[in-house]
Design a protein that fits this description.
single chain, 283 residues, alpha/beta, 12 helices
């Protein structure tokens, strides 16, 4: 690409950009270099993914949070690769521009780098994912190296990592006191291993800023304060569809109320014989 074209590509905003083609890890790096902040949302189906893509969201995560908001589990632990592959494929099919990142669920990579590679390859080949995400710091650095060496972009995840909820004794803020130094070392280890971005979840805002300033790759905050390069939310939390959302999840709509009203009005029309009318019937 000529330098002038490359400059224009790097100058296009990551959020809301309209350049043809998928967002790539190079686009995320360029946004970090520009100091541009950008949004990320979860997605689990083609319809909502397409809406978010049209809204200009540059990165969509098919999270193992599907365990909570799709499958109805209390934690993400039961989610499997087989659960997430069809969801990831649907999100890819429903979008044109967004980078689609697939979570590697609990048990799919902890055993060995080879196990992680096998799971990641399935997401890339069977679902068309553009990258994968895994949880952990120094202990998974070799896993990250193996995946990156195989040509698979990897997003890291530190702090309150939901797959370790039992080890943490619940959903508790991480990184306070001396633990913050460990998280900083873990973030640097992920970057050195080749991760193209790092999610920071449930940590003090000051630590989120410190890690962001220490890394050359983007940080994506979820309950990690405003100093991160990007912010991600579970879309059902963002839209007011889920109950009991965490402190960091600002509600931008009340979709639950809208759906409840629509369902109630539909049911009332059916019960009263008011639906379907001639307008909604074939002749």
């Amino acid at each position: 690409m000529p330098s002038s074209q490359a400059s224009r590509a790097n100058a296009e905003p990551l959020y809301g950009g309209r350049r043809p083609g998928r967002v790539t890890v190079r686009d995320l790096a360029a946004a970090k270099a520009r100091g541009e902040k950008w949004p990320m949302l979860t997605a689990y189906d083609a319809l909502t993914a397409g809406i978010f893509d049209e809204a200009g969201i540059p990165v969509l995560l098919v999270g193992d949070s599907a365990g909570n908001v799709v499958f109805g589990y209390d934690t993400t632990i039961p989610v499997t690769v087989d659960d997430l592959i069809p969801l990831t494929a649907a999100v890819v099919r429903g979008t044109r521009r967004a980078m689609v990142v697939a979570d590697l669920p609990f048990g799919s990579y902890q055993g060995s780098p080879a196990a992680g590679l096998q799971a990641a390859v399935r997401f890339m080949k069977e679902a068309g994912a553009h990258a994968v995400k895994l949880e952990g710091g120094l202990r998974v650095a070799h896993h990250v190296e193996e995946l990156v060496a195989a040509g698979i972009p990897v997003m890291g995840h530190l702090g309150l990592t939901p797959q370790s909820v039992y080890a943490f004794g619940g959903f508790r803020v991480q990184g306070r006191g001396e633990d913050g130094e460990r998280l900083l070392r873990d973030a640097k280890a992920l970057e050195a291993a080749g991760a193209f971005a790092v999610v920071l979840e449930g940590i003090p805002a000051a630590l989120g800023t410190r890690i962001t300033e220490a890394l050359h790759v983007p940080t994506i905050g979820i309950g990690a304060g405003p100093g991160c390069d990007a912010q991600v939310l579970v879309w059902q939390d963002m839209a007011g569809l889920s109950s009991g959302a965490p402190k960091f999840a600002k509600r931008y709509a009340d979709v639950a109320s809208v759906l409840r009203t629509a369902a109630t009005e539909f049911a009332a029309d059916v019960a009263a014989g008011a639906f379907p009318t001639e307008e909604y019937s074939y002749q």
